Amino acid sequence: MRKPGDALPTGPEKVRAVREMFDAIAPRYDRLNRILTFGMDTGWRRRTVTALGLPSGSLVLDLACGTGDFCNDLTAAGLRAVGFDNSPGMLASANTKAPLVLADALRLPVADGGADGVTCGFALRNVADLGTFFAEVARVVRPGGRIGLLEVAEPRWRPARVGHSIYFKKVVPLIGGLLSDRAAYAYLPASAAYLPPPTEMLTMLADAGFPDARRRLLFMGASQLIVGTRA
Fold this sequence. Notes:
alpha/beta; Rossmann fold; 9 helices; seven-stranded mixed beta sheet
């Protein structure tokens, strides 16, 4: 596991490090999510499901599904959910009736255009290559299908940005260390550095096949929801 001050891993090393990290924190992952987001993560996921705007019965793939929270929200909305994750530990700790698949999000065992939609919660920064990820999402989503991607963000308003930075970089590792694994919860804030600037990310999505991709900030800009339609 990465130590404070270490360079962020890349390529195969990143894939291995992320998988091992999530395997380690899986048993208490849901509990920590509720605590660290003050329960707001549940509302963010439900807002994402609503933003998809897909009819009942649509097939939605939840990538980096973890323990299945997003799958449960999709199912509750009348959608057919299938979760994919490359962490055996997270899947073993899952609490969902949706089908779950152990797979790399960059190489999904799904036919071209086989899904009506895709969701992903706070994992864009964890994939080995974001451009390849967006291309794979575009491959599996049918024309007219929808995506809803949740990720961390940085508030625009300076006082909120300062407070968010203190909480994200200092408080999150502290609480994570007390209740789970400090190194893992120090990595999670640091991993935001993997994300490109918002305009660049939207351009990447447009180039991949989602020309109308747009970004909405949540909770004063601490999180972001990106939605788009497959051309």
